[in-house]
Amino acid sequence: MGSVPAAARSNASSRWRLPAVWVGLVVVALIVRLPFVLHVGPNEGGGDEWYTAWRSWSVLFERGNPGNFLHPALFYDAGAALFSGLYLAGRMSGAFHSPVDLLADFVLHEAKYLQALQLLAAVFGALTVPVVFELARRIGGWRAGLVAAGILAILPLHVEYSHRARVDSLCVLLTALGALALHRLAERGRRRDFLSSGVMVGLATAANYPAALLAVAYLAAALFARHRSTSAEFVRSFALGVVAAAAAFALTNPYVVLTPAAAFDGFTFQLSFAVKAASIPREGVPLVLLPPRARSERAVRDPGGVLRRVARDPRARIPSHPGTVPVGIRRRLHRGQDAGGSIHLDRDAMALCCDRRPPR
């Protein structure tokens, strides 16, 4: 009789041990990554990070259109959701009364919004650690899981990209989740495993195009699970997974479907850039594709410095030059006061955050 409560306590402790390890790994990963985010300054963000910020604003004010397809839009969707949350909090606290107030706050305190995006990336990076632990644990046991998670938690390359406002941290997280789903597919081969694997492959690709290579792993896992079902069931399940992957990608990147030509151009340029970069004229390359020193030379590391000056002095004049600022933002930022007297900006001022520096 005395052994029953002991067994029950053992089962209860083992049931809580795994979630406790997951939470502990997330905390350790955040401890490693957060100091880099919390020490960000107004000039910390490189051109690629400011590019991410502007794409997130595009998604928010252009009905989900990121305006560019050099990368898929899933991280920009997450950034837009984060900015929406900040706007909701501002409305509830009385700090914001209209979307113009949110944009004015971004112009005056752009480093704060970049820091919020970096914090979001750090959370994605920290969540990757327990996923890798779980994948390694299922393959090689607890020791393998702890070793894999420990290495990833302090891996310099992952730490570096986990506190940058880029698509990479989200892509790595979804790729790890996709690998976990594919492992389950190879082991069990049920229809819902095909479905979940397809969804994760689609979401990982929606974060960054190279994750589409997970399709090869999906094919391998499906072939490994082939003997667990009849031919007809296997074909239906496999096709269901493919459809689920395409649907997950399309739902998170709807403008890839609505503007296929622009999406195809961005996709092919991204895949071929490594080969063609040497032959592209330096002045014709978007800033986000240049090395940090070149970005600094073309004066985009602190675009908000000029914007703050214009916001504080409505009479300041800035020469016009080619810009790629989202139309929805230009409509909301114009010279002269809006209904709430919140901001003084025009198209020329906002164009300073474009892909080319103004002519001298």
Ends apart, CA distance between termini: 88 Å
Question: How many helices?
Answer: 17
Shape designation: globular
> Radius of gyration over alpha carbons?
24 Å
List low-pLDDT spans: 277-360
Please describe the biggest sheet, giving its number of strands, its sense, and whether it closes into a barrel.
none
Structural class: mainly alpha
Q: What is the N-to-C succession of helices and strands? A: HHHHHHHHHHHHHHHHH
Question: What does this protein look like?
Answer:
By secondary structure, the protein is mainly α. Helices cover 69% and strands 0% of the residues. The chain is built from 17 helices and no strands. It has helices at 3-38, 47-61, 74-93, 99-108, 110-140, 142-154, 156-162, 168-188, 191-207, 214-224, 231-252, 254-258, 260-276, 292-297, 304-312, 327-332, 347-350. Helix 5 runs antiparallel to helix 6. The model is unreliable at 277-360 (pLDDT under 50).
Question: Can you tag this structure with a few keywords?
Answer:
disordered C terminus; 360 residues; mainly alpha; single chain
Architecture blueprint of SSEs:
Elements (H helix, E strand, L loop, with lengths): L2 H36 L8 H15 L12 H20 L5 H10 L1 H31 L1 H13 L1 H7 L5 H21 L2 H17 L6 H11 L6 H22 L1 H5 L1 H17 L15 H6 L6 H9 L14 H6 L14 H4 L10
Would you kindly provide a brief summary of this structure?
The chain is mainly α and 360 residues long.
